[in-house]
Every structure is written in C-alpha cells, then in structure tokens.
Design goal:
The complex is a heterodimer of chains A (317) and B (264). By secondary structure, chain A is of the alpha+beta class. Chain A contains nine helices and twelve strands. In chain A, the strands form two sheets. In chain A, strands 3-2-6-7-8-9-1-10 form an eight-stranded mixed sheet. The longest helix of chain A has 20 residues. Chain B has 264 residues and is α/β, with parallel strands linked by helices. The mean pLDDT of chain B is 94. The chains are: A alpha+beta (317), B alpha/beta (264).
Chain lengths: 317, 264
Amino acid sequence: MGRVLKKEDYKKFLQLLKSKAELVAPITTDMTRFEVVEDIDDINLEGGNPFFPIKKYFLPNKETLLKIKNGNTKVIEKKPKKRIIFGARLCDINGIAILDKLFLDHKYPDENYKKKRENTIIIGVNCLTSPSEYCFCGSMDLKKEAYDLLLHEREKDYYIDVHTDYGAMLVKHLPEDRFDYPLPKTEKKLDKKNLWPFFADKYWEKDNDLCVSCQRCTILCPTCFCFDMYDRVNPKTGDGERLRKIDSCHSKDFTEVAGGHVFRDTRLKRYRHRVLHKVQFFEDKFDRSMCTGCGRCIEYCHSKIDFVTTINKFIEH
Amino acid sequence: MNSIYQAKRYRITDVVEQTGDNIMLRIKTRLNPKPGEFVEVSIPGIGEAPISSASYNNKVLDLNIRIVGNVTEAISKLKKGDKIHLRGPYGKGYPIDELKGKNLILIAGGCGLAPLRGIIEYIDQHRLDYREIYLFFGFRSPDDVLFKDEIREWEKVYHMNLSVDEAMGENPFNCPVGFVTGILEKAELPVNNTEVLMCGPHVMMEKSIRILENKGFHDNQIWVSFERHMKCTTGKCGHCMINGMYVCIDGPVFRYDEVKGVDE
C-alpha cells in the first residue's frame, strides 16, 4: 500500500518532515553530503549519491560505548536525537538492512545501534537513472526494505511506498494508491558467481598492485562495519570512556594479536578479505550479498580499483 | 539500559606467579565458562583482553595471563583483593560433554595449556565418563612450565608426556628434552574411539595434526583452538574473522575438518 504526493505538494511535505524532527538530506556544497537541513530549498536530490552513506547516522566514526568512572564502566542512558533521513537511495537503505543483521542480532543486540535505529526515520528516494557511472546496484538484488517511506517519482506525482506504521502516520493525509515501483537499473553489473575457486593470489595481484591501503573504500562503504574498541581516560582522574571507532580490515594491525603476530600479513590478503567478505563470505552465511552496488569504493578509490571488473573477468577453468 | 559491552566487577582471591611472563588469577565468580570458552577481562581505563578459562567449577575462575600487551601488563600488577572486570563467557569451547565414553588425547604448547587445564578439571569431576587420558604438554624450558604442581598430580593419574625444548642443565621434571611433537610421534595411541583436543602455537598444532594423520586419525577426531584478538566478542567488530567465520562466536574451538586448509 502507498500514497500519492502531488508534485506541487513536495515542499509542503518536506516542511512537514522538518517540523517533526531533525531533518538530514543531501545538500550540495563542494560535493553532496547528508547534512542537517536548515532550509528545505537546500535539499538537492540531483547531486548524485551523497559522499558518505547514511551508515554514519547509525555507526558514527567514533562513539562512546561506556562511561568510565571511579574504576567502573557505566552504560549511558542518554537517548539519541530523533532524526529523519530524507533522500537516501536503496543502496544505502539496503546497507542498513545488512547492518541490522549483525547489530540487531538476537543474541547480542548492540544497544547503541538499536537506539539510533529506533529514533531514526528513513525516507528513501528511488533512483530513476544511475546517479553515477560506478553504480551497479541493478545486479545486486536490492530489496524493498528497511525504510519507513520511499518516494518514487512518476510523471505527474510521487508514489510513496509505505513500509512502517510511523511512515504511514506521516502520510496518512495523502490519497492512497497501489503501485509496484521498479528497482533501479544500472549499466554496470557484477557478474555474480561462486568466488571460492578464485581465491588464489594470482586473481587479486593486479588490483593489489594498485592498492595503497588508504581505507577509503571501507570508510565510504554503506555496509563496512568493522570497529575497534579502546579506553580513553583523563590520566589525573582515571575517568573517561570506552569508545568504539570505525576500523578497517585494510589496516595492517587489524589482525594483530598481542605479541605482534599479524594474521593477514600482506596487502593482498587484506584486499581480498574485504572484497570476498562483501560478495562471498557474507552471502555464505546470510544468503545475501553484503555489497549493495553503490559504487563508492570504486568511484572514490585513488587508483580507481574496480573489483567488479576484476571479478567479471574471472573465468572458471 | 543494558549493553552487551558492559562488564561486571569481580574480586581477585589469589594471584599465583607461574613463570616469568605468566601469572594466574583466581577470581571469585560463578560465571563458570565451559572448557575452551573465554571471557573478556578488563581494567577500565586500560582496555580489554580476551582470556580463555583455565578452570571448570562454579566457585572460582582461574585465568592464566601471559604478559604480552599493555592490558595484560596492567593486569599483572593486580594483587589479591583487587577488583577486575569480566564479561562473558563467550565462544564455543571443546565439546567435552559430547565426548563421553572416549579416550582423550590432550596436546598443548606453552600457555595453550590454560584451556586444557579446564578440560582436565572437568574430567576429574567426571572421570568415569571417559576412558584413557593422554596428555602431551610442551614448554620452552623447565622454568616455563605452567601449573607445575598440577602437572605432578596429573602424572600420577593420567598418561602424562611432558617435554621441554631446552633444559639448560636443569630438569626438575626429569622429562625428555625436545619438541612435544617428537614425543607424540613415538607414542603408541589408540586411534579408535579417541578424540584429540589441542591448543597451542599454530606450528605445533599443524605438526601434531600431520603426525596424528600418519597414525591413522581422521580430521573429524581432532579439535583445535584458534588465537585471534577478539574485541567485541559478539560476532561484529570483524577483528577475529577468518573468511567469514567469527572466531569469537563460531569458535575459538573448531573441529579440524571444518577449518582444514583455511587460507586467508
């Protein structure tokens, strides 16, 4: 079930969103980023896929997990800000569905993530054309999930796909409609295949020669979640916090154990690990790819390393 | 609000100096991890370190701490009566209760003995459930032998094979000098109805497995424990991941046929 928003009512709708909570949306300055909306006229859906994925609102670069006081650790009771994310694309939204699998895991749900998830409304926009030549989501079996509402632009109006009760409440004043919106199509495609036969170093050497381990790919990936945990305290009082910081499997010390041994001791091993985690390991476990085809890891790579082209060239002997 | 990262505070009831770089903490707790499982030990302000349980009982928890990093260094300065933070237990340990009625071969190198000590404590409590118990423990030198008093006790009741790589003139245990794998190679062991549980340096485990395979053991009779730096311990942070497997929740103990030949 969905609703219909007339094009002339689009701004009114954005005003409504802005009145409900902190509104973040793509805003173009030097480049397009998700930022807090001061003026709804600043919102720009035509600026390509924003630089950072919406992951940053759920797994920020750095956050406090526990407070440390008088030699004890204490859980933070503070509620996160109520926030509406407007203008996220299906690649980023699917990324959240993938993060949910780990961070809302039944046995070990991550409270920090869960609280942010509960206090954030996601309103997507469907891509009618690929925002960038690097997009390949059309081959990644994206699902219509993890958003509250999603706008699909039609000739005369927007069809709003309603996915949650909160989303339904936001648009209950609009006329109903039923429409199965099409998923985005992309020219670039990942030729999905079983990659276990291509584990050998020789398949990854060419990409590895170009990689400088800058970790941009993992930072900008909508699903890269690896993190480090460490304590930071005031040396005088001993009080401080236990923090989580986004980490990258591309860093050399990522698999280091006490004593100095590094398990993934070459750049090739680390590069292969990232790619295979995205498109093989995760799929083995959860029956879906961890890559959503946003293309950022290629677009923003210093050397334009393109794992999609690399994999597409693999031929089984 | 709960947090999966929140640790609880416990009292250290004893600190036993083991060797120059190993200490054993005895902590009053009913956490009682199963053999092979581990806890995340921490001092708020310093950090956390994953340490496997070296005991099996619901009164105290023994942790053998090898002093190698900044956290273990700080832990080594703690004294009897001090407090320490623990969360856990985590991971999949040795399936010791599923191995009843079998002969067991335990192979450890260095501080790999710690989790196996938990198994022995379990066996001590359920001795009639198991058949023959063979122990193969290797250390660098007599000074490096962990749980010295217990080893003398175990010698009396189990098939104990202790060895040191180098004796440097003194050999209070009167044990053979050489790698423990050499002792394993010469040992006569029952292959049928036997399971092998091991923990230690990667090289030692690989060598032991080759020797066992030559003796006719199958990979599904062998259980190995992997070392990784688990940080979140809840199958998230990625630090302990090997090709999609999380050592913290899928391991640290694996049946060898499931991880044989894993390259990363």
